[in-house]
Amino acid sequence: MNPRVKDVKPNPDHTISLVFTNGEVRCFDVKPYLDKGIFKQLNDLKAFNSVRPFLGSIQWEGGQDFCPDTLYMDSVPVTDLEHSESENRRATRRST
Question: What confidence score (pLDDT) does residue 19 get?
Answer without folding.
Answer: 98
